Amino acid sequence: MSRLSNRSKGVICILLSALCFSGMSSFINLSGDVPVFQKVFFRNLVALIIASTALLKNKESFKPAKGCLPYHLIRSGVGLMGVFGNFYATTKMASTADAAILNKMSPFFTLIFSAIFLKERVKPRQAAAIAVAFVGAMFVIKPTLSNVELIPSICGFAGGIAAGAAYTAVRHMGNKGENGRFTVFFFSMFSCLFTVPYLIFDFHPMTKEQWIYLLMVGLCAAGGQFSITAAYTFAPSREISIYDYSNVIFTAISGYFFLGGQVPDALSFVGYFIICAMAVWMFLYNKKEHSLDNR
Predict the structure, then answer these.
(1) Rounded Cα gap, residues 24 and 29, in angstroms
(2) Which residues are CB-contacts of 272 (< 8 A; sequence separation ≥ 6)?
(3) Closest C-alpha to 92, from 18, 156, 43, 139
(4) Which of 33, 60, 102, 172 has its CA 20 to 30 A from that of 264?
(5) Residue 197 — very low, low, confident or very high, per pLDDT cuts 50/70/90?
(6) CA–CA dist 17, 79 (Å, integer)
(7) How far is 182 from 180, CA to CA, in rounded Å?
């Protein structure tokens, strides 16, 4: 891999991340009727162990960078809300790909929150792309009372909003020089501490298969987190972020072959096309703007 360019390494890492998060969605679904709180605990427990080991191995500090603690708390709070929304949608929706595409609204909301809190300018064309992507999300959510999946769809969409807010906090901490491994550690520890009381007072017994599936949820989540962190150390977002949408393709394929032949409906496919088209358009637009700025 050393002969590859940094951009190629970034693309490989972000594709690996997308594949890991796709596996996570499948294992969430396969684990069955285990409560969402329990699933979220195992998702973060494995990541906590791996992040702690990585910090110890590299002899890095278990303390946040100066001025970053409030942002870690914000990132962890809204990030955990995003995980709950995504897990609930993944568990309750007939198509895991629908839940995945709603979660992929997060980059658009990162733009909005960055404009509000980090004073980063959103250009008119970017605002238009956000508006059109929102329309695409409505095709997936299908906001009518006849939609039996309306509440899970809204939770998935809210999870995408919360993830966008979390990524904004991560972006701000990255600008302050915070260690990415510590960020994963703090979020995982926060999530485990938040969910462990639920397990103490209302733990649902699991079969051997469910234990295995939830451990795989944690392994896939950790693999996804570390892979996407590595991806953005190799190459900037404007060059590789579009490849993260391969997660929707991977999730749709695994849903069809491993989760009982899941096939999204026609309206969902329209929504996928609109959201992905806006993501591609923003990707190309950002690259063009960056090229003009560097002239």
Answers:
(1) 9
(2) 97, 101, 136, 140, 248, 264
(3) 156
(4) 33
(5) very high
(6) 17
(7) 5
Range list of H helices, the chain: 6-30, 36-57, 69-92, 96-103, 106-117, 124-141, 150-175, 180-202, 208-234, 237-240, 246-258, 266-293
Residue of 219, 248, 277, 252 lying closest to 160 (CA atoms) = 248
In angstroms, how far apart are the furthest CA atoms of the chain? 62
What is the structure's pLDDT at 74?
Answer: 95
Nearest to 38 by CA among 190, 197, 159: 197
Q: Which of 49-53, 106-110, 286-290, 291-295 has the highest mean pLDDT?
A: 49-53
d(CA 51, CA 135): 38
Query: What value, to the nearest 5°, has the Cα angle with vertex 20 and ends 83 and 245?
Result: 80
Has residue 235 got a pLDDT over 70?
yes
Predicted confidence (pLDDT) at residue 232 exceeds the cutoff of 80: no
44 vs 11, 19, 219, 267, 286, CA distance in Å? 25, 18, 9, 33, 33
* Closest CA relative to residue 190, chosen from 28, 40, 31: 40
Q: Token pair for residue 226?
A: 């570390």
Amino acid at 112: I
Residue the block writes with tokens 């499948």: 26
Q: Average of pLDDT values for 132-143?
A: 91
Q: 87-123 b/e with 16+ CB inside 10 Å = b?
A: bbbbbbbbbbbbbbbbbbbbbbbbbbbbbeeeeeeee
Residue 39 binned pLDDT confidence (cut-offs 50, 70, 90)? very high
CB–CB of 153/98 below 8 Å? yes
Contact criterion met (CB below 8 Å) for 34 and 262: no
Token readout for 156 is 């998935």
33: exposed, middle or buried (Cβ count in 10 Å: 0-12, 13-18, 19+): exposed
Q: Which of 102, 92, 85 is nearest to 149 (CA)?
A: 92
- Do residues 91 and 28 lie in contact, with contact meaning Cβ atoms separated by under 8 Å? yes
